[in-house]
Amino acid sequence: MARLIVFAGLPASGKSTIARKLAAQTGAFWLRIDAMDQAIWASGTAPTDLRDWTYRAAQALAADNLALGHDVIADCVNDWQEARDGWRAAASRVGAQVVWLEIVCSDRAEHRRRVETRTGDIPGLALPDWDAVCARDYHAWDSDRLSIDTAHKSIDEGVAAALTALGGDQSAAGRDG
What we know:
alpha/beta, 16% strand
């Protein structure tokens, strides 16, 4: 059964770095919302606020690839319950499992350092500053998820935790479907 591996977490928590490495190691299809947003904005015709447009497009792509039997990694902040519900619905439509991975950086000083020193790898994408990260309206979860704290872990340790979740006990991995 195909799996939808949904990453969530604030900017600079390490989610895209872990998601990219996980996709490379597993062969899963990687959907990166930031890259999709920037491609849309680069058209010069899109509004600044894309609302949920990119999430909806990515969820449709995820469902198409899940239906083909491919695992899909959704790499996005997923700070609102509506976004999470959209991923759940995309997987449900095609009978795929969902694995929720929330990436956090519990050390506030380390998280701030990451935000203030990171460089982007998506040409043209403006990265949020620390005030914007702190101002995010990150809704509480209504489902189980595996939380990976990257504050004092290497990226490889974060990837190893994600791989364990994917191969481990379903209840420990926070799967639903």
